Task: inverse folding
């Protein structure tokens, strides 16, 4: 958040410790995953450090690793909290204050507290998620004084948006996130792949930016950071044995995200329609299997999928019925490829990758289990591997991946901006149908049999018969 202040005042990160530590002493008493806490932090920082530019850094674990926190604050904790504040405390409170107060305390510390805790931490089917969801992040940013135009008179910051948000977590360069943050942030810096446990090389980045004298050019700063990040980790061990597949980092101009959302909406519609065609759906399935994916197959590189789909559609052209939506698929894929070219006036203004040049800066949720990667990870841990080079690395990838699917889809369902693309509708109804047809006996292996059943059932339930008008 205070990077730019460091840069402008020729100070070092250590000079910020007094301000930050004072705030943290207060903040850490609260739940730092609540949007209100982040809003409060941004308000505090923008008041204490008045400057023209702000960069917010979110440090933590990516989508595939949040279950570590989930276990900490799961059902067991709620039961423990209930026991601690409920029955056990009630007995002592009852002896101390008598029966009437006991009943009042039961309301205060028993069932009502448990319900409040469940609501606060987002209980789903007995599990509790304690992390900052995408929708909560959007809420936190939009409620700041900066966003509301309520900064103090004479404040040097112009406009109502943060200049940069940097996400120091694995696999967060997603169009779902970028879509929601548009209007609150100008630029987003994140990785499609894993982020090493060493995190971003903050000191080197700040020193190099200062040396290049780019402090007043926000876009240039965003264009430089991925390259500096890549240089810092050029000797980092990226092998199957370490669990790190490669180093990637992208800078996105969120003002231009609609140039990708538009053709993505067309693609989602064409994919959904094509899912009922026996020949075309096989090509869609094959393209998804071939595309560059991440997080054991939860996400896919959007541009690479489009290129793979084009290649599949070029095969056996005589078998593809002319009346299908193939032209629509081709048109949407072409527009997405054009929109994702790295350029100054585009959405992807910089992209650094060493993974076969198949990471183009933006991922999208498109679940299909990557058997080889998951099996390698499980084999590594079965052999007693202890090296955990990823941020919050986990030893149970398949189990945790399955649990994350339901949570992710629930989180994505709350993303109003991204849902306009109807991609979630394609996943629920089109992709689930394709998997049910192409891999009926392997749904749990590739995705989730339970989710497929629920998704297709919701499709059936939504197709209600028309109401018959009552006779006059």
Result:
């Amino acid at each position: 958040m205070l990077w730019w202040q460091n840069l402008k005042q020729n100070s070092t990160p250590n000079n910020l410790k007094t301000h930050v530590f004072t705030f943290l002493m207060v903040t850490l008493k609260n739940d730092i995953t609540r949007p209100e806490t982040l809003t409060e932090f941004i308000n505090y920082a923008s008041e204490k450090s008045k400057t023209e530019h702000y960069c917010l850094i979110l440090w933590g674990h990516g989508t595939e690793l949040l279950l570590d926190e989930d276990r900490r604050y799961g059902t067991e904790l709620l039961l423990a909290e209930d026991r601690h504040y409920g029955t056990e405390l009630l007995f002592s409170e009852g002896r101390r204050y008598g029966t009437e107060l006991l009943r009042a305390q039961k309301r205060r510390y028993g069932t009502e507290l448990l319900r409040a805790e469940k609501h606060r931490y987002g209980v789903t089917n007995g599990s509790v998620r304690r992390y900052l969801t995408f929708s909560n992040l959007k809420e936190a940013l939009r409620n700041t004084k900066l966003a509301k135009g309520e900064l103090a008179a004479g404040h040097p910051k112009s406009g109502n948006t943060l200049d940069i948000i940097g996400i120091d977590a694995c696999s967060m360069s997603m169009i779902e996130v970028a879509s929601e943050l548009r209007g609150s942030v100008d630029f987003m810096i994140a990785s499609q792949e894993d982020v090493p446990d060493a995190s971003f090389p903050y000191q080197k980045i700040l020193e190099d930016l200062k040396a290049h004298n780019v402090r007043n050019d926000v876009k240039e700063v965003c264009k430089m950071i991925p390259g500096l990040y890549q240089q810092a980790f050029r000797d980092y061990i990226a092998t199957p044995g370490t669990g790190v597949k490669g180093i990637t980092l992208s800078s996105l101009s969120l003002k231009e995200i609609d140039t990708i959302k538009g053709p993505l909406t067309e693609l989602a519609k064409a994919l959904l329609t094509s899912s009922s065609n026996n020949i075309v759906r096989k090509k869609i399935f094959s393209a998804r299997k071939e595309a560059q994916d991440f997080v054991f197959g939860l996400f896919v590189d959007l541009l690479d999928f489009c290129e793979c789909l084009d290649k599949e559609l070029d095969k056996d052209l005589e078998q593809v019925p002319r009346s299908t939506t193939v032209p629509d698929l081709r048109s949407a894929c072409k527009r997405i490829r054009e929109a994702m070219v790295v350029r100054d006036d585009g959405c992807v203004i910089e992209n650094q990758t060493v993974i076969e040049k198949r990471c183009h800066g933006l991922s999208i949720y498109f679940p299909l289990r990557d058997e080889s990667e998951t099996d390698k990870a499980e084999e590594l841990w079965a052999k007693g591997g202890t090296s955990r080079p990823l941020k919050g690395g986990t030893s149970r990838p398949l189990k945790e991946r399955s649990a994350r699917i339901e949570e992710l889809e629930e989180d994505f369902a709350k993303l109003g901006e991204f849902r306009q693309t109807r991609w979630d509708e394609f996943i629920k109804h089109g992709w689930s149908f394709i998997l049910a047809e192409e891999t009926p006996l392997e749904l749990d292996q590739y995705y989730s049999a339970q989710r497929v059943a629920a998704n297709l059932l919701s499709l059936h339930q939504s197709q209600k018969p028309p109401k018959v008008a009552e006779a006059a």
Observations:
- Residues 1-26, 64-126, 378-387, 465-472 have pLDDT under 50 and may be disordered.
